[in-house]
């Protein structure tokens, strides 16, 4: 059985293979305070060790500019070895592409439209 933690904006689940699945709840607007809470939880769960993340964004969710900037923070991203985004809307796909091109994260990131492909890609990093 995997560990599941619910926050105001998301459900955080540690999958049996050690990948952390973060599902943003439908209809929420993520702000910096929410991301700080999620980061504290993930920092505790990972022990600060770079880990694999599956991030799922429903089409009707949104984030403030302050939250987007914090999401790209280099210190916050030190716990990430690789990250897969699942997006279903064109708007989220454009935001993800901007995030990758503007912030240039140091860890591997890829955008997917389905969970199976995202997990398959993340699993290639399990042996590293």
SSE blueprint:
Blueprint: E1 3-6, E2 10-14, E3 20-24, E4 29-30, H1 32-46, E5 51-57, E6 62-63, H2 65-71, E7 80-87, H3 90-103, E8 108-112, H4 115-123
Parallel strand pairs: 3-5, 4-6, 5-7, 7-8
Antiparallel strand pairs: 1-2, 2-3
Helix pairs in contact: 1-2
Would you give an account of this structure?
With 128 residues, this protein is an alpha/beta fold. The chain has one domain (3-123): STAS domain (Transcription Regulator spoIIAA, 2-Layer Sandwich). 35% of the residues lie in helices and 30% in strands. The protein is built from 4 helices and 8 strands; from the N terminus they run ββββαββαβαβα. A 6-stranded mixed β-sheet has the order 1-2-3-5-7-8, with helices on both faces. Strands 4-6 form a two-stranded parallel ribbon. The chain starts with a strand and ends in a 5-residue tail after the last helix.
Tell me briefly what this model is.
By secondary structure, this protein is an alpha/beta fold. The protein has helices spanning 32-46, 65-71, 90-103, 115-123; strands at residues 3-6, 10-14, 20-24, 29-30, 51-57, 62-63, 80-87, 108-112. It has one domain: Transcription Regulator spoIIAA, CATH 3.30.750.24.
Q: What is the β-strand count? A: 8
CATH architecture annotation: 2-Layer Sandwich
| CATH class placement | Alpha Beta
Provide the CATH superfamily: STAS domain
Mean pLDDT: 87
